[in-house]
Fold this protein.
Amino acid sequence: MLYVNNCTSPPVPVLSESEIHGSTPYDINFAYPIHEETLQNARTKLVPFVPSVHSEAYWNHVGQDPATFRYYPFIFNTLHEYLTWLELRIRRDPHNILFAVIDKTRPDAQHPDWDGSLAGVISIFNTSAPNLATEAAFVVVFPEFRSSHIAKDMVGLLLRYLLELPSASPPGIGFRRIKWSANPRNAASIGLAERMGFKREGINRWVWVLPDELAKEGMPGRVGDAFSGKRGRDSAVLALCWDDWEGGCKERIQEIIGSK
């Protein structure tokens, strides 16, 4: 034999409470500078999500409302599951980060140091640093903050942060491509992306195998494969690139988020 195959499946990591909540101060382990002035305006600000600070308020909003994850490709049943995912898939990859979205127009008496109320989350994910490309992903706006400024502000501020050049004022990271993926049935997500300047590029077919809890948002899968009986789904793909940004989208976003 010219080869062997000694591949084994690694065990599923089980993290302790101290591992999922992290050190103090919390190490975000992010490869890029956090430009605080770029990530906020008069109404809204994006700050790195810190489990020991934000997770309880986050789970109070979404933990009792499974519909929050209706169009996700996976679901979290407990806060520990969510924080384990955050640690393994986000924090340990230096090109990913999760932001807490703060509504500065709604004070939170329990957290006066936040300068507002937690309104949702948004992440940078699936980054290809050599290609200056990334994805705005895992977006959640809590129900009581929908139909307000939050959704547009959080996306607009993130786009400014990602697409502006480091030499700009306020400075950005200088990426070339920002991707947005959504369940094709999620008209609200696709509509928000298009209003913010993203352009439809097509459909990634059969990109996800869905858990049973989300099966109704999928399609019947193939009988006889490794996940026989599990439903799956496509993803609609949109993107906003540097030439879109410099070709008029920057001015559109500035009108939406206003001056800082």
